[in-house]
Amino acid sequence: MGIITKIESQKKRDDRVNIYIDEKFFMAIYKELVFTFNLKKGQEIDPNNLKSILDNEMYMKAKNKALSILSKASQSEKQIRQKLAKDYEEDTIDRVIEFLQKYKFVDDEDLASRIVNTNVNLNKYGKNKIKQNLYNKGIEKSIIETAIDDIDTDKEFENALYLGKKRYERLKNEDSRKAYQKIGNHLAYKGFNYDIIKKVLNKLFNDVDEYSC
């Protein structure tokens, strides 16, 4: 293929170098790869060696992109795969995911647990909405089911009652039937199931049998 005639550090990126072959610019790669492949002036580059260098160059680019994405917000494996798929081959993405999972940069079980904790304790959502939020993150069904099963039923009812009381204070001067339905709809939107909604409404209203949520 040719002989390396110069390896030059880039002025604006000290982590990258320019490789010249036969006195002509050939490619730019991460400086780390110079040491990985023991590249030096006067060395001949063959096609097999070049392919390995380029494969690792793409891997490092993809890995750095993934780490940049994760520095802004936690992501599931599926989300990372989708964002890398625009620019990188599947084999490269698989290597990146393996690295991210090895060092716990991507951990869907931990992510699901943290989302559940935030949704229950901060947002006060019901299981149905939390389940949808996890699904939207691309988390596997089995992981979602395990995370949802860990939600305390008493805590879920406590959250529903809290939200119901808040909405009741806003609607207490309205017609009881309309207020009842609005609160029921509000709690359904927040992800609570029929049984929990019914229990909350029974606590908030006297004689609710004539109404339906």
Automatic annotation (TrEMBL):
<dbReference type="Pfam" id="PF21981">
    <property type="entry name" value="RecX_HTH3"/>
</dbReference>
<feature type="domain" description="RecX first three-helical">
    <location>
        <begin position="62"/>
        <end position="100"/>
    </location>
</feature>
<dbReference type="InterPro" id="IPR053925">
    <property type="entry name" value="RecX_HTH_3rd"/>
</dbReference>
<comment type="function">
    <text>Modulates RecA activity.</text>
</comment>
<dbReference type="Pfam" id="PF02631">
    <property type="entry name" value="RecX_HTH2"/>
</dbReference>
<dbReference type="GO" id="GO:0006282">
    <property type="term" value="P:regulation of DNA repair"/>
</dbReference>
<dbReference type="InterPro" id="IPR003783">
    <property type="entry name" value="Regulatory_RecX"/>
</dbReference>
<protein>
    <recommendedName>
        <fullName>Regulatory protein RecX</fullName>
    </recommendedName>
</protein>
<dbReference type="InterPro" id="IPR036388">
    <property type="entry name" value="WH-like_DNA-bd_sf"/>
</dbReference>
<feature type="domain" description="RecX third three-helical">
    <location>
        <begin position="154"/>
        <end position="201"/>
    </location>
</feature>
<dbReference type="GO" id="GO:0005737">
    <property type="term" value="C:cytoplasm"/>
</dbReference>
<keyword id="KW-0963">Cytoplasm</keyword>
<dbReference type="Pfam" id="PF21982">
    <property type="entry name" value="RecX_HTH1"/>
</dbReference>
<comment type="similarity">
    <text>Belongs to the RecX family.</text>
</comment>
<feature type="domain" description="RecX second three-helical">
    <location>
        <begin position="107"/>
        <end position="147"/>
    </location>
</feature>
<dbReference type="InterPro" id="IPR053926">
    <property type="entry name" value="RecX_HTH_1st"/>
</dbReference>
<dbReference type="InterPro" id="IPR053924">
    <property type="entry name" value="RecX_HTH_2nd"/>
</dbReference>
